[in-house]
UniProtKB/TrEMBL annotation, chain A:
Name of the protein in question: RNA polymerase sigma24 factor
Source species: Streptomyces humidus
Cited CDD domains: Sigma70_r4 (cd06171)
GO molecular function annotations of the record: DNA binding; sigma factor activity
Keywords, in A-Z order: DNA-binding, Sigma factor, Transcription, Transcription regulation
Domain RNA polymerase sigma factor 70 region 4 type: 105-156
Similarity section: Belongs to the sigma-70 factor family. ECF subfamily.
Example GO biological process: DNA-templated transcription initiation
SUPFAM superfamilies: Sigma2 domain of RNA polymerase sigma factors (SSF88946), Sigma3 and sigma4 domains of RNA polymerase sigma factors (SSF88659)
Keyword Metal-binding set for record: no
Chain ranges of the RNA polymerase sigma-70 region domain: 23-80
From TrEMBL, chain B:
Residues passing through the membrane, by range: 49-71
Keywords annotated in UniProt: Membrane, Transmembrane, Transmembrane helix
Organism whose genome encodes this protein: Streptomyces humidus
Domain of life: Bacteria
Region annotation Disordered: where it falls in the sequence: 20-41, 337-360
Taxonomic classification: Bacteria, Bacillati, Actinomycetota, Actinomycetes, Kitasatosporales
Name the record gives this protein: Uncharacterized protein
Length: 170, 416
């Protein structure tokens, strides 16, 4: 019976968080929605495996985001041990969303960042994590996150211009 | 609002833009959360199955040296799984059967210090040991595998190890021939160290049959492939004996007894499997690192392992990355200045500044790729992390040592 209750609890959590995890994954993968779905599935699978522990942490949603980030970074490492910004953009599958100029421009700019820098940007500015929390999620040091963050901001400034608001929908 | 913590107006604008853009990705397809749970259940089953098979593999990584490729890095179904599905029962061969088989096929002499894997293991069958015909010890190993048919037939000539082209092959001899049963065999005489800094000779025979059996025999004129002095002028078996040993029908019967891998899409690496892989890589690193380096901490997951070592002169960070099936990226990864060894392995080394901002940090790397696309990259730093200041002028391992670790055959027995 306890197992059934736990399964229900997991199902409820997954149903509530899948949408947000998917949108985070879309940003991490710079718009590759197929890969994003796969990463979310993998993340949910890992959470399922450890649900007993996950359900007891203070912030299961934050924990899920950390698992997603690590799953994404592990995927990138398997692809290549060297960081390299993507030169060509993935076919942005139409997930039913609206390709606004802002989204296209932002996704393209994110795609030009190395994977770890992109993860820092997503955690810091989409998830609103602190430097320390970002470092924890990425198994990295605060100093390394600061370096990545300032490098990524510099690059995004170059690509997007100082006034990102130009691309925003009216 | 946490975004307000950002001091720079650009950061605030970026945050707002991300939220706006991220929100335009519509909800994922229905059923994604259910699919996630299903993957979790699969992982749970695989985790239970893989951990059971890891101990034997670890033990063999310590003695191994067989240049054979595991099926594809995925754990093969265990015999009990085959029985449970009601498939036709195949005879199983134990590790002892492997040892006895090789013993019978070797010429008169003493075969000792053996280690083996049978057909019920996660990794393919293997037997290794020291053979002494009375004229000195030589290490001998036989690895068995199966070449996947990939829908079409198997062309043994294309699948067998090719002899390198040109005069400077680094081999004393190499010959591929077609046998009357349609099999192809390459018999070669080469050296353990391509730069011949030691006289250890490595001879071998590589056989592929039309049915996809793959037999790889290796022998050395020393009691181990590396780290032992030469104990005789040449390895114990002649090229004719190598050929006879590789073509023995016994090996094919054993390969036939290995359960076939089920043709299902490969699942992404589950966490449990990744942990096992990390432990195996750490075990190989322990074996291949010089003894003076003490591992003080370690971490990693999947095909990635990092350690901090101490030789008494300052702690240093080392990392190793193992990747499979990277052949298609070889052109990008290894430039024209990369070295190609006689067996087709590509090697690129580099010495440069660290990438993560630690003051005075240097990063030395040996990046290698076997002919089958198996890539092993090892980097050493002169600091105990990539982002902290240097603890010593140089990493504790030379480029030559890094190269040797990356080229160790111990990595070849690991899956992906």
């Amino acid at each position: 019976m306890r197992q059934a209750a736990r399964a229900d609890e997991y199902a409820e959590f997954a149903a509530a968080r899948t949408g947000h995890l998917y949108r985070s994954a879309c940003l991490l993968t710079a718009g590759d929605t197929h890969l994003a779905e796969d990463l979310v599935q993998e993340t949910l699978g890992r959470l399922y495996l450890r649900w007993g522990r996950v359900s007891r942490v203070d912030n299961p949603a934050g924990y899920a985001q950390t698992v997603l980030t690590r799953t994404f970074l592990a995927h990138q490492r398997r692809r290549s041990s060297r960081e390299r910004a993507v030169e060509t953009f993935p076919d942005v599958a139409d997930g039913g969303g609206t390709d606004t100029p802002l989204r296209l421009t932002l996704i393209q700019a994110l795609g030009r960042l190395p994977a770890k820098d992109r993860a820092v940007v997503v955690l810091r500015y989409w998830e609103d994590r602190s430097i320390e929390e970002t470092a924890g999620a990425m198994n990295s040091s605060s100093a390394a996150v600061r370096t990545r963050c300032s490098r990524a901001l510099g690059r995004l400034r170059e690509l997007l211009g100082e006034d990102i608001g130009t691309y925003a929908r009216p | 609002m946490p975004a307000d913590q950002h001091g720079d107006p650009f950061e605030n604008r970026l945050s707002a833009a991300l939220r706006q853009a991220g929100g335009t990705f519509d909800s994922p397809r229905t059923g994604l959360s259910t699919a996630g749970a299903a993957r979790g259940r699969r992982m749970q089953l695989q985790r239970r199955a893989t951990i059971a098979g890891s101990t034997a593999a670890l033990a063999l990584a310590g003695v191994g040296g067989a240049l054979i490729v595991p099926w594809d890095g995925s754990p093969a179904p265990r015999p009990s799984a085959v029985a449970a599905t009601g498939g036709s029962a195949k005879p199983a061969y134990s590790a002892d059967d492997m040892v006895r088989t090789l013993q019978k096929l070797l010429p008169e002499g003493k075969f000792s210090r053996t280690a083996a894997r049978g057909t019920g293991e996660e990794l393919p069958p293997l037997v290794a040991g020291v053979f002494d015909d009375g004229k000195g010890e030589g290490s001998v190993s036989v690895g068995l595998g199966r070449i996947p048919a990939d829908g079409g037939g198997i062309n043994p000539s294309a699948a067998v190890m090719p002899c390198p082209d040109g005069d400077q092959t680094g081999l004393d001899s190499c010959r591929t021939e077609l046998l009357s049963d349609g099999s192809a065999i390459t018999v070669y005489q080469g050296y353990e160290y391509p730069d011949r800094r030691e006289d250890t000779k490595a001879w071998g025979a590589d056989l592929v049959t039309p049915a996809g059996h793959h037999v790889s025999v290796l022998e050395w004129n020393a009691a181990a492939e590396k780290g032992k002095p030469v104990s005789r002028p040449e390895p114990p078996l002649t090229t004719a004996q190598l050929k006879k040993l590789a073509t023995a029908a016994q090996w094919r019967r054993i390969i036939d007894a290995v359960p076939e891998k089920k043709r299902t899409p490969a699942p992404a690496t589950p966490q449990g499997e990744a942990d096992v892989q990390f432990q195996r890589m750490l075990s190989v690193l322990r074996i291949t690192l010089p003894k003076k380096l003490k591992i003080v901490s370690s971490g990693g997951q999947g095909g990635f392992v990092h350690v901090v070592v101490d030789d008494g002169k300052g702690r240093s960070y080392l990392q190793v990355n193992l990747q499979l099936n990277m052949s298609d990226a070889a052109g990008q990864l290894y430039g024209s200045d990369a070295e190609t060894l006689p067996d087709g392995t590509r090697v690129a080394t580099s010495q440069g500044p660290g990438e993560k901002g630690g003051e005075g940090v240097v990063m030395w790397t040996a990046d290698t790729m076997r002919g089958d696309g198996r890539r092993v990259v090892i980097s050493a730093f002169n600091a105990d992390s990539q982002s902290t200041a240097a603890t010593r002028p140089e990493p504790p391992l030379t480029i030559a040592q890094l190269r040797e670790i990356a080229l160790s055959p111990h990595w070849d027995v690991l899956g992906g």
